[in-house]
Amino acid sequence: MIESLNIRTSGQGLVEITDRVRDRVASRGMRDGLCTVFLQHTSASLLIQENADPTAQRDLENWLNRLVPENDPLYSHTLEGPDDMPAHIKSMLTASSLAIPVENFTLCLGTWQGIFVFEHRRGAHTRRLKIHLS
Predict the structure, then answer these.
(1) Above 90 in pLDDT, residue 92?
(2) What does the alpha-carbon distance between residue 102 and residue 126 come to, in Å, rounded to a whole number?
(3) Residue 19: in which H helix or E strand, if any?
(4) Total-model pTM
(5) Which CATH number is correct for 2-133, 1.10.510.10, 1.20.58.1000, 2.60.40.1510, 2.60.120.460?
């Protein structure tokens, strides 16, 4: 079964979606299987990352912005603004899909792991995800 999920972002940064994905698993009564989450965009990404300390999330964002700066003279894809090409590169370096085992009705995430949409653009967006439970 495939379900859709829309996530509203407010600009660059991580948006935790763990509870929304857990709710989808619970609503289907899946005992054991695989939950695949797929993001239908090329300027945002998905991560499994620490969800306890928000400074870890800010450090990831700051590090990635330093690695892939805006206004690099090598970029030719610039019509959508200085944050667009860096967002595509950041998306390429991270992931657009995640596969998370489900065991005994529970996502098999570690104690401090959360599922995040990582928005790479500065502006707010609505990001579309597909969740497949099998």
Answers:
(1) yes
(2) 27
(3) helix 18-28
(4) 0.94
(5) 2.60.120.460
